[in-house]
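Working notes for the structural subgroup meeting. M.R. asked for a predicted model of this chain before we commit to crystallization trials. I am recording the input and output together here so anyone reviewing the notebook later can reproduce the run.

Input as submitted:
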Amino acid sequence: ETILRDGYSKNAFHQGYRFANQDIIEDLPYGRSMRSMVILLSRYGLLDPVIRAAHNNPVLRSALLDAVSAHAPYKQVWRKSLSPNVIRAVLYKMANL
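Returned structure, recorded in token form:
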């Protein structure tokens, strides 16, 4: 679409690509931070309590599904994940390892 509309120069592609994918570009920092958080949780054995908490917490379960399926932007996944209800559920599962 970019080539047909704007031509095939480097500048035309850059401008067309940025415009067409602005929502993805704006969500990249949230995706990168999500990846870093998962790596950190995994490294310290704290990912299992998150998974266990998701069994009984539909908001967390939805956030995890959205994170791996791209059904929602990472910004929205963060918002769901940081709700007080989700944090409380995860902390409860961490305390009951």
